[in-house]
């Protein structure tokens, strides 16, 4: 059986499973559709949250970014897990007690303002659509490889499948399907990692293998990796970063974004009690951490494998790296995985010095130019897209074909589950907060669900269009979404619970400040509405203000949101007594009924 | 009613204090050990690199898990103590 057939079998079988579950748990009412009827066990919910959360960005893209950036990209690891600590302590239990299905509903009620509710809808849609773009980018990579089509065709196929799947399921279908998807994706992620850790270090647990001795060279794996990459002009994998301010802000942006992302928050509305919401956050983090502690091992080992594939002489203990670098493999002899990824356009080779060999090195490093010239190199000849690394990993390590099929199924599961969760958040914001509560309060339940499904379709089309010209690798695009959610929604949600003094004017001013400053900073460097070529400044560290990247700006946006909301609230009238009573009731875990939208 | 109010206020105060403690640890492992204090921890070797690197890629994540479970456990105790549990 060839690889293509095996991939189709694995992806097909996993799909059959999800569709079966979606049909079995079909949504019958709007309540089922939005919050799965409110009766989900904390561990089940934790697992579904983990699948919801771990998107194409975590599964496909993050290890690639770690491989390329090493220590500097630890921000993704800490940011995307540390946010759960904030979520578990600052938001989830109280929003569960509040007991409405949507994040804008809380903001609208707490700040007794339909303007605040509408602005929350805008923030939610902006963050979620940006996030879906990242999913489309990642899913496009996965489909293009496994169906052996171009990247563009891959994105369109992904869009079609996400649409069919999210539109019919609703939250109830999504919750149980996501449990299945979690199982598929975590198995798919860890099995190749275990194999590779065994091959390279003899230690079967990747998170320990990463810090063990590299068998072939007899020195610690990370030492070996540092030696190999620096011999080719790259930064050492474990090298410290110069701009600690940017690293702190980036991590903080991802953390507050995690806590402010509506599709994650609404997951906690599905458990029966406030205490369950707290436990559920803990379980979600356990299930997420299984992948996150493995990711750096996958990244570092894949990087080493990639380098020693191109430079076979570097794999053993090397005295003279100059000599080892002189004999990269011939392009003719390249392994099959390079051939198959070349079809997708995500690996490209250009023989710049005409010697028929593949020179892979860092030609942006000016200090290395001399060495490169001495070696007769005229530029880096192999460009490898970061996003392919996890998917190509089993092939790079020569693992059996079924492992590759498994990875295909896992990557697709990750992208689908998150895209579905996001689309649900978008559609509930439009159909419930915008149409039902603002434009047409007398809409029937059927009409509301129809509106939800139509808005899902619209969101997918927009995200697909932007996914064809993404503003970065999947994980980088997703990081922007976090900045937006963290700067606009997180601060007012938190203040709405922890302060009785924040009023309607403060919340509106705060959200607008956070959203607009963050968008302005992002669009300045990445183009207006991400349209390529419309950026006003080049997106390079030199032109960033104080070296703060667009991905890191969310933390500053959030701080401004806090300051503005606080100041404006203190010079305007305090919230009325019934709002202060509402805050009081949200703080007490007692008497949380099931989540509802009927308590007006 | 007055009792209820002061009880709720005491519960909330205990909750905020717990959160504050947890967030100090949260910030210490991630922003502290993994980023800002990494140069200070450079002398402590961990499998081919240093302790700060380990905190950035493993240690902080493991600490976060402990923190969320500790918080859930602690709050359950407080819920019972103040008679606000279900």
Q: How does this structure look, described?
A:
The complex is a heterodimer of chains A (600) and B (86). A two-stranded antiparallel ribbon of chain A has the order 1-2. With 600 residues, chain A is an all-alpha fold. The longest helix of chain A is centred in the N-terminal third of the chain and has 51 residues, at 151-201. Helix content of chain A is 68%, strand content 1%. Chain A contains 24 helices and two strands. Chain A has helices at 3-24, 30-35, 42-53, 56-69, 74-98, 103-110, 114-146, 151-201, 206-209, 221-231, 244-260, 262-265, 274-292, 295-310, 321-325, 336-344, 369-374, 389-396, 401-439, 445-468, 474-498, 504-526, 553-571, 577-587, and strands at 347-349, 382-384. In chain B, strand 1 and strand 2 form a beta hairpin. Chain B is 81% helix and 5% strand. Chain B has 86 residues and is mainly alpha-helical. Chain B is built from three helices and two strands, in the order H-H-E-E-H. The model of chain B has no long low-confidence stretch (mean pLDDT 91). Chain B has a two-stranded antiparallel ribbon with strand order 1-2. At the A-B interface, helix 5, helix 10, helix 11 and helix 13 of A face helix 1, strand 2 and helix 3 of B.
Map the helices and strands.
The complex is a heterodimer of chains A (600) and B (86).
Chain A (H helix, E strand, L loop, with lengths): L2 H22 L5 H6 L6 H12 L2 H14 L4 H25 L4 H8 L3 H33 L4 H51 L4 H4 L11 H11 L12 H17 L1 H4 L8 H19 L2 H16 L10 H5 L10 H9 L2 E3 L19 H6 L7 E3 L4 H8 L4 H39 L5 H24 L5 H25 L5 H23 L26 H19 L5 H11 L13
Antiparallel strand pairs in A: 1-2
Helix pairs in contact in A: 1-8, 1-19, 3-8, 3-13, 4-7, 4-14, 4-19, 4-21, 5-11, 5-13, 5-21, 5-24, 6-7, 7-8, 7-19, 7-20, 7-21, 7-22, 8-14, 8-19, 8-20, 10-14, 11-21, 11-23, 14-18, 18-19, 19-20, 21-22, 21-23, 22-23
Chain B lengths: L1 H35 L1 H4 L3 E2 L2 E2 H31 L5
Antiparallel strand pairs in B: 1-2
Helix pairs in contact in B: 1-3
């Amino acid at each position: 059986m060839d690889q293509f057939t095996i991939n189709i079998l694995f992806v097909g079988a996993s799909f059959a499973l999800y569709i079966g579950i979606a049909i079995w748990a079909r949504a019958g009412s709007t309540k089922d559709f939005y919050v799965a009827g409110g009766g989900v066990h904390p561990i089940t919910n934790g697992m579904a949250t983990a699948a919801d959360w771990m998107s194409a960005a975590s599964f496909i893209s993050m290890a690639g970014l770690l491989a390329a950036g090493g220590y500097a990209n630890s921000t993704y690891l800490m940011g995307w897990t540390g946010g759960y600590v904030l979520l578990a302590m600052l938001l989830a239990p109280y929003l569960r007690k509040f007991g409405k299905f949507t994040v804008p509903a809380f903001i609208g009620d707490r700040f007794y303002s339909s303007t605040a509710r509408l602005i929350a809808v805008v923030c939610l849609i902006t963050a979620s659509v940006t996030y879906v773009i990242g999913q489309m980018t990642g899913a496009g990579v996965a489909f293009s490889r496994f169906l052996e089509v171009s990247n563009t065709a891959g994105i369109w196929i992904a869009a079609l499948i996400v649409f069919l799947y999210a539109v019919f399921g609703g939250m109830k279908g999504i919750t149980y399907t996501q449990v299945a998807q979690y199982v598929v994706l975590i198995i798919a992620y860890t099995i190749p990692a275990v194999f590779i850790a065994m091959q390279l270090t003899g230690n079967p647990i990747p998170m320990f293998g990463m810090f063990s001795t590299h068998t072939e060279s007899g020195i610690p794996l990370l030492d070996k990796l540092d030696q190999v990459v620096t011999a080719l002009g790259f930064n050492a994998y474990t090298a410290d970063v110069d701009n600690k301010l940017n690293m702190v802000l980036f991590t903080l942006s991802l953390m507050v974004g995690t806590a402010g992302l509506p599709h994650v928050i609404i997951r906690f509305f599905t458990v029966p009690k406030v205490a369950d919401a707290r436990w559920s956050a803990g379980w979600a983090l356990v299930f997420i951490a299984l992948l996150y502690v493995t990711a750096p091992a996958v990244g570092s080992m894949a990087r080493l494998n990639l380098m020693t594939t191109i430079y076979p002489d570097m794999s053993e203990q090397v005295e003279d790296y100059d000599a080892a670098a002189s004999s990269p493999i011939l392009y003719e002899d390249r392994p099959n995985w390079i051939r198959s990824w070349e079809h997708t356009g995500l690996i490209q080779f250009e023989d710049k010095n005409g010697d028929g060999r593949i020179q892979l090195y860092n030609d942006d490093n000016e200090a290395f130019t001399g060495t490169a010239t001495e070696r007769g190199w005229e530029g880096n000849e192999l460009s490898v897209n970061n996003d392919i690394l996890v998917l190509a990993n089993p092939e790079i390590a020569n693992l059996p074909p079924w492992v590759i099929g498994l990875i295909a199924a896992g990557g697709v599961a990750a992208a689908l589950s998150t895209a579905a969760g996001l689309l649900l958040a978008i559609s509930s914001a439009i159909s419930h907060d915008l149409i039902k509560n603002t434009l047409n309060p007398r809409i029937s339940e059927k009409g509301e669900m129809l509106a939800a499904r139509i808005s899902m379709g619209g969101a997918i089309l927009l995200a697909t269009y932007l996914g064809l010209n993404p503003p970065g690798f999947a994980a980088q695009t997703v990081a922007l979404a976090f900045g937006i959610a963290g700067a606009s929604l997180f601060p007012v949600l938190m203040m709405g619970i922890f302060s009785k003094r924040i009023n309607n004017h403060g919340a509106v001013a705060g959200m607008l400040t956070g959203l607009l400053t963050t968008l302005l900073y992002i669009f300045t460097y990445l183009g207006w509405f991400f349209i390529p070529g419309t950026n006003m400044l080049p997106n390079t560290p030199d032109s960033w203000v104080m070296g703060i990247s667009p991905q890191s700006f969310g933390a500053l946006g959030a701080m401004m949101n806090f300051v503005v909301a606080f100041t404006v609230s203190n010079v305007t009238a305090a919230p009325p007594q019934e709002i202060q009573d509402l805050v009081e009731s949200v703080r007490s875990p007692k008497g949380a009924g099931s989540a509802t939208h009927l308590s007006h | 009613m007055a009792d209820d109010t002061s009880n709720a206020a005491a519960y909330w105060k205990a909750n905020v204090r717990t959160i504050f403690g947890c967030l100090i640890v949260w910030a210490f492992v991630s922003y502290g050990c993994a980023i800002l204090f990494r140069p200070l921890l450079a002398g402590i070797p961990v499998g081919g690199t240093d302790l700060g690197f380990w905190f950035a890629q493993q240690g902080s994540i493991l600490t976060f898990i402990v923190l969320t479970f500790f918080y859930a456990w602690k709050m359950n105790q407080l819920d019972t103590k103040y008679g606000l549990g279900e």
